[in-house]
Design brief:
This protein is α+β, with helices and mostly antiparallel strands. The protein contains 17 helices and 17 strands. Helix 11 packs across helix 13. It is globular.
Length: about 500
Amino acid sequence: MKKHFKLLSILLAALMLASVFSGCDAAVTSEKRDGLIVAIDRDPSNLCAGFAASTIVGFCSRQFFDTLIVRNQEGGYEPSLATSWEYANGGKDIVFAIRNDVYFHNGQKMTIDDVVYSFNAIIEAGYADCATSAMERMEKIDDSHVILYFIAPYGPGLECVSTDYMVVFPQAYYEEDPDYFQRNPIGTGAYKFVEWKTGDKIVMTANDDYFKGQPPIKNVTFKVFTDTSVATLALENGEVDVHISPPTTDAGRLRSNPNIKFSATPSATITWVYFNMNSIFTDPRLRLAVAHAIDKEAVLIAAIDGEGELVNSLCPNFFFGVDKNYQPPGYDPELSRKLLAEAGYANGLDLEVEVSSVRSYYMPVEVIQSQLLEVGIRCTVKKIDSNAWFNDVFKGATYTWNIAAFSCSMLDFDENYPLYRGGQGQNFGKVDHPELNDAFDRNRFSVDLDEREKACHDISRIMGDQAFIVPLYAVNNFLATHKDLKGAVVHATKDYNIFDWSW
């Protein structure tokens, strides 16, 4: 009996210990998390969007810095560092009233002088040309108001001010060492910079004195995964909590995973075919021959697994000014062959195409290569390093035709002004069409919405009918997160503010 009683006592003790440890585990797992790990697909070039035109820089910068105003989901604008604004000088310039209760991460109070200095430094630097090209300068009016001068009445003025580029930082800290500032940022944003280990991670912590309130998530790490499929595995294994750039090849698997919230939306990243006007494609018949040879639906399916939507202009379908009724030249191989013959190429022609080694570039090129072959346009395709492609092929204008996968940072046709308006420095393909120039100017230099909408319709019609581009598709943006993360909603422009997320 004693042996049995002793054995029973041991078993009871073991059960009690198991219960205690189980209770501890339950307490740990039920405790609310205060950290977040986000997978990013590369290192940013710096951490302040005012000095780099890059989607990943914008995502990082948005956590550290604020803008004067922000764009809302309805396409309007809301106050941020500015409390209000109004047009001045006949609608040419904008006056902003600035908050007086905002502090930088180093404890220094933000002043009007910091706002003015930040804007003028970004305008002068030239990295944010798509937002700043129509801005002249900013000046102080008094201790609570600034005025932003434009070169003329400028339709997208508020859109430009709302972009990630136009951030505010402390003048004294920046002037001390601009290069150091770009890797060790100090702003007014919801998160303060902690460390950056290149190729590994970027760490930040909550700004508990943030003027919009304390961030729900206290510690955030951006973990670098150059292979986005590896990042998908890390999300599935619980090593990361958020994947902002899942590849299309992983979309189906993520959609079916009950432990992951997966969402998709057409993005502001547009893919189109474009031509060099200093090549044989100065002949519109050849451009139209290419346009009619391309089956866009087939390119969409083969290049990005159908994860996107077709577009009819150089902007996403949700942009202001997109003409939903316009149809650019469509798939018609017989017409393509006829146009080739009329242009003097009845026996077809041979072309060399150097394409970026980035998948979003070379995949559509390879699909189009096979489609062009069907009408007699024989293309030899060569993949090259993406940086070499950008500098030598795109900027060097050594191509005949190529592919653009362009991410719009401001939601306006005017972002393409430097690329296709005649006489502009970034118009590397030398497109210069009087009607097109006029349409771009009318959109840029008017604040009348009806006039701007008509101008945007004209831009789409001229560029499509003349086949200066062959618009293809807007790829979907994906967002995959841990199922318990709240507030994380997929955005067309990846405008993710971690301040809005919580567990």
